[in-house]
Structure to design on (403 residues):
């Protein structure tokens, strides 16, 4: 009998037990579940939103080759390969002067454009096909006794309070989740930058008039041209933090995108519009006893480097490996080193995301020291293969073995 049936038949008073409780059905939680299931380790995912909600949440779009390879190993990359768009480079522009970054030449690697909603749909379907239990609309309210070997998670589901006992708890519950709040405050240092600008993002039924992504610095502010398919574009504009979406009519969005990107766009119907603040955030410890954090629960990077989802997958790869080692040969070595291993990569990705953010956004008055340094970086980018390679190798994703 599965957990849902036990809850239904016992009014939640039955003793519910699994090996690993995973809080959150985002990319991190779902991928972790599939990795554990592949090694025969039972787990249950608790997700406070509905399936429909998580499958339609519009977010990231760019997958490192590392991430694609993880999905291939898990047997969940079939649709991704059919519908995803493989890119071998991107453009970085400064007031209309364009430099291509050639991933193929500098790294022999590639990236794939495939919407996060599609990733989440594929992962949920694979979990359900493989009989991994996901409790949707189940809100984790407390993580109990995680400093002992018998932790548990309290949650509410269909109006009932329940407790699920386990050996390990994975806090893959995003930036606003419960996991990080439970971690003892004295166990970590916190670092954060809140940038003085946000991104207005749109999805539109338009044919991309560009073959690769364009990251554009412009005196009016940054713009990014991305895509989802031959028929759908994803585009972003830098806006002030207090900007109201109502100030941006569709016509104004298209006109400002064309102005900043300095290309003509196919101005189709805009069907999604939202404003996202930009922040860098991390804590430098991801674990306490039997509680382990992964993904946005532990760190946020500004999206300019396209790294958030990819970093979440790198974390859970380490966590799955550590948990598997524990069950297969009783070794706690990788569990002990989990946080240290993840944090090394997190710092690298924080640096690259911060670098791309300062490189591409309008922050300083023309003629100021900061603005002239920024311009100098673009001048250098145009003449230096080494600088291009540095951007390429970070952008496509450094190998997992590096950290
Ligand atoms: P989430 O996706 O946030 O999942 C956490 C889950 O936990 C959620 O489903 C939430 O409902 C659930 N939850 C929270 N609290 C509870 C609770 N108490 N009980 C039960 N469930 C709970 N990343 C990239 O790699 N490439 C990009 O191009 C990129 N672009 C981006 C563009 C934008 C505009 C934004 C906003 C983000 C972008 N990102 C990008 C970042 C990426 O979307 C995130 O890093 C990614 O979603 C992290 O996955 P996660 O599983 O850690 O967290
Ligand atoms: C996308 C988002 C990003 O933040 C980025 O750097 C590249 C692409 C996207 O949504 O397609």
């Amino acid at each position: 009998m599965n957990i849902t049936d036990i809850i239904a038949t016992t009014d939640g008073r039955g003793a519910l037990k699994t090996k690993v409780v995973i809080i959150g059905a985002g990319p991190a939680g779902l991928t972790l579940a599939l990795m554990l299931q592949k090694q025969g380790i039972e787990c249950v995912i608790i997700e406070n939103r509905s399936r429909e909600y998580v499958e339609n949440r519009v977010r990231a779009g760019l997958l490192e080759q590392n991430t694609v390879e993880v999905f291939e190993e898990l047997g969940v990359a079939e649709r991704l390969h059919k519908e995803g768009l493989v890119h071998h480079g991107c453009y970085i522009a400064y007031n209309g002067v364009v430099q291509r970054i050639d991933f193929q030449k500098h790294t022999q690697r590639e990236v794939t454009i495939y919407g996060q909603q599609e990733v989440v749909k594929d992962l949920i379907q694979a979990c359900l096909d493989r009989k991994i239990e996901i409790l949707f609309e189940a809100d984790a309210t407390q993580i109990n006794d995680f400093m002992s070997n018998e932790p548990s998670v309290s949650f509410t589901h269909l109006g009932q309070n329940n407790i699920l006992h386990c050996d390990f708890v994975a806090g893959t519950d995003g930036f606003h989740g419960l996991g990080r709040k439970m971690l003892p405050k004295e166990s970590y240092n916190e670092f954060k930058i809140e940038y003085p600008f946000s991104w207005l993002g749109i999805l539109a039924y338009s044919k991309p008039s560009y073959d690769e992504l364009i990251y554009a610095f412009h005196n009016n502010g940054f713009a990014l041209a991305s895509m989802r398919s031959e028929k759908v574009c994803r585009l972003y504009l830098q806006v002030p933090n207090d900007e109201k979406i109502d100030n941006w009519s569709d016509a104004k969005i298209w006109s400002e995108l064309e102005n900043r990107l300095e290309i003509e766009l196919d101005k189709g119907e805009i069907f999604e519009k939202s404003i996202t603040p930009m922040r860098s955030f991390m804590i430098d410890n991801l674990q306490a006893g039997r509680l382990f954090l992964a993904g946005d629960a532990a760190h946020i990077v500004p999206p300019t480097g396209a790294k958030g989802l990819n970093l979440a997958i790198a974390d859970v790869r380490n966590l799955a490996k550590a948990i598997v080692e524990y069950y297969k040969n009783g070794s706690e070595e990788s569990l002990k080193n989990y946080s240290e291993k993840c944090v090394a990569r997190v710092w690298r990705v924080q640096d690259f995301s911060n670098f791309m953010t300062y490189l591409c956004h309008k922050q300083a008055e023309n003629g100021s020291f900061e603005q002239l340094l920024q311009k100098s970086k673009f001048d250098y980018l145009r003449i230096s293969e080494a600088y291009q390679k540095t951007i390429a190798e970070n952008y496509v994703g450094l190998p997992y073995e590096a950290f």
About this structure: The domain at 87-112+193-279+359-400 is CATH 3.30.9.10 (D-Amino Acid Oxidase; Chain A, domain 2). The pocket of flavin-adenine dinucleotide (ligand 1) is lined by residues 23-29, 46-49, 54, 59-62, 116, 139-140, 172-174, 177-178, 199, 201, 276, 295-296, 303, 306-310, 312 (CB under 6 Å). The chain has 13 helices and 21 strands.
